[in-house]
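Run folding on both entries below.
>entry_1
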Amino acid sequence: MLRLDGKVALVTGASKGIGAGIAKGLAAAGASVAVNYASDRDSAEAVVSAITASGGRAIVVAGDVSKPADVARLFVETKAAYGALDVLVNNAAVYQLGPLEAITEEEFHREFNTNVFGPLLMIREAVKYFGPRGWQHHQHRLDGVASDPAQPVDLHGNEECPRRNHTGARKGVGAETDSSELNQPGSNGNRGRSRGRRDRSRK
């Protein structure tokens, strides 16, 4: 396993599920971890408690990744606690299951703002803090299908799959992530593939 001793990681949507697992894994590898949540503070604190009980370092940082002011504060609080930022994992996401014709304008914007605009805001803010060895990882999974965010996911014929706008939203993230990689010296862009998620929210 890659050792991350002395590194600082910020994981969005890390209060439960795959985000919590990523946070714990980074801490086990030696990183100090900022565990972000938008609504479930108790679960986020439980993740931090599990990390510290195992000898790791972690803090809770509240914030909605779709809100610029919250995003800026996440980085300020992480740097205030640990003095730097080396790793960003964009894991926060929301979606609802249902047919395309049932989608509302409000739900579309809720998903787009969190799943596309949120990672863009996070990446934009991260490049202000990353040193030459910093890197970011974009994490996503659709209906149990692990996928590269830059590649389309074939959900044709699956009536209960996440809405098609979610698929398009995640493809949009692939484009913005590729762009951020080109503009960040030393960044390794998208690292690895996701490993399992069926919950409807990672916030």
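>entry_2
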Amino acid sequence: MRSSRSGTSDVDREPYNLKQRISKTRLLMNPLEQHLTQYAAYHRDRRNIATHFAGIPMIVVAIMSFLARPAVSLSELPFLELSGGQLPGAAMLETAMGLAGHVISPALALCVAGSLYYLRLDLRFGLLMSILNVLALWLGAQIAALDWSHWLGWSLGIFIGGWALQALGHYWEGRKPAFMDDIRGLIIGPLFVVAEAGFALGFRRQVAMRIEASAGPTR
């Protein structure tokens, strides 16, 4: 291990040099690339990336399941009722819009808000993330429909299992998770997994190259 005249080793200087390189390159990037580069800097070990492909979807589904339990049926909302009965045409409107039997829940709000955020960052990735968010919402709702003990058991099991995979990956990486330095890492994580899958299939090569040039190659 080499040391500088000031007594600081190359290893000690590496995090600083990495942050300096990222900050300079980010000035030329759009917001999507900036967020993915920041997140990628904490995920250069291929084993860590692999654990995220399983761990992050598990966590997302578990969160959707937790948040799908407190739900209100559309037919129970005050604006759909009048004098103890539904407003004329309300049931027909629900059916026409595909809302019959649907419920409003915190999980639905999270799905919509997350999808809008991803669409704002990038249209193509945003559309794909919106589809995956709806799928996660549906899976979470299926778990939430179970009886109380099975819902809680499955949700906790999936949630803990997902975070266990994350912890293993970052043990191999030798770095803490990105969200510990920037809370936005929690919402960028799912996008990072989808982007990495796209890059592996040959999509958005220019984006992948700019991210790797800044964050460094995987190992």
